[in-house]
Design a protein that fits this description.
Elements: H1 15-21, E1 24-25, H2 30-46, H3 50-67, E2 69-70
Helix pairs in contact: 2-3
Length: 73
Protein backbone atom coordinates (compact mmCIF):
# COMPACT_ATOMS: atom_id res chain seq x y z
CA UNK A 1 0.00 0.00 0.00
CA UNK A 2 1.34 3.42 -0.89
CA UNK A 3 1.49 6.25 1.63
CA UNK A 4 -1.96 7.49 2.60
CA UNK A 5 -2.48 10.57 4.77
CA UNK A 6 -5.47 11.73 6.76
CA UNK A 7 -6.27 14.83 8.74
CA UNK A 8 -8.60 14.30 11.68
CA UNK A 9 -9.18 17.88 12.80
CA UNK A 10 -12.47 19.77 12.62
CA UNK A 11 -11.47 21.75 9.51
CA UNK A 12 -10.41 18.71 7.49
CA UNK A 13 -12.67 17.23 4.84
CA UNK A 14 -14.59 14.09 5.70
CA UNK A 15 -12.54 10.92 5.97
CA UNK A 16 -14.26 9.45 2.90
CA UNK A 17 -13.47 12.54 0.81
CA UNK A 18 -9.84 12.37 1.91
CA UNK A 19 -9.71 8.65 1.08
CA UNK A 20 -11.36 9.15 -2.33
CA UNK A 21 -8.84 11.83 -3.33
CA UNK A 22 -6.11 9.25 -2.71
CA UNK A 23 -7.82 6.47 -4.67
CA UNK A 24 -9.39 4.64 -1.71
CA UNK A 25 -12.73 4.23 0.04
CA UNK A 26 -13.68 3.40 3.61
CA UNK A 27 -16.69 1.41 2.40
CA UNK A 28 -19.25 0.35 4.99
CA UNK A 29 -17.17 1.85 7.81
CA UNK A 30 -17.42 5.43 6.53
CA UNK A 31 -20.30 6.63 8.69
CA UNK A 32 -19.01 5.00 11.89
CA UNK A 33 -15.49 6.37 11.45
CA UNK A 34 -16.77 9.86 10.72
CA UNK A 35 -18.90 9.80 13.88
CA UNK A 36 -15.84 8.76 15.90
CA UNK A 37 -13.80 11.60 14.34
CA UNK A 38 -16.48 14.15 15.25
CA UNK A 39 -16.72 12.81 18.81
CA UNK A 40 -12.94 13.07 19.25
CA UNK A 41 -13.04 16.68 18.05
CA UNK A 42 -15.82 17.50 20.52
CA UNK A 43 -13.78 15.93 23.33
CA UNK A 44 -10.69 17.85 22.20
CA UNK A 45 -12.47 21.18 22.66
CA UNK A 46 -14.37 20.37 25.84
CA UNK A 47 -12.89 17.67 28.09
CA UNK A 48 -9.84 15.79 26.78
CA UNK A 49 -6.21 16.66 27.39
CA UNK A 50 -3.79 16.86 24.48
CA UNK A 51 -2.40 13.44 25.42
CA UNK A 52 -5.87 11.88 25.55
CA UNK A 53 -6.77 13.42 22.19
CA UNK A 54 -3.62 11.96 20.64
CA UNK A 55 -4.41 8.50 22.03
CA UNK A 56 -7.96 8.64 20.62
CA UNK A 57 -6.75 9.90 17.25
CA UNK A 58 -4.09 7.17 17.06
CA UNK A 59 -6.76 4.51 17.66
CA UNK A 60 -9.01 6.08 15.03
CA UNK A 61 -6.13 6.15 12.56
CA UNK A 62 -5.57 2.40 13.02
CA UNK A 63 -9.27 1.77 12.32
CA UNK A 64 -9.20 4.01 9.24
CA UNK A 65 -6.13 2.28 7.82
CA UNK A 66 -7.67 -1.15 8.45
CA UNK A 67 -10.87 -0.11 6.63
CA UNK A 68 -9.21 1.29 3.51
CA UNK A 69 -10.05 -0.38 0.21
CA UNK A 70 -8.75 0.56 -3.24
CA UNK A 71 -11.41 2.12 -5.46
CA UNK A 72 -12.00 -0.19 -8.40
CA UNK A 73 -12.17 1.74 -11.66
Amino acid sequence: MSEVRFGYGPINESLEEQANKQGYTLGDETEKLEKIRKAINMCMFHVATESQTKQMTDKLHKKVMKSLKIIEV
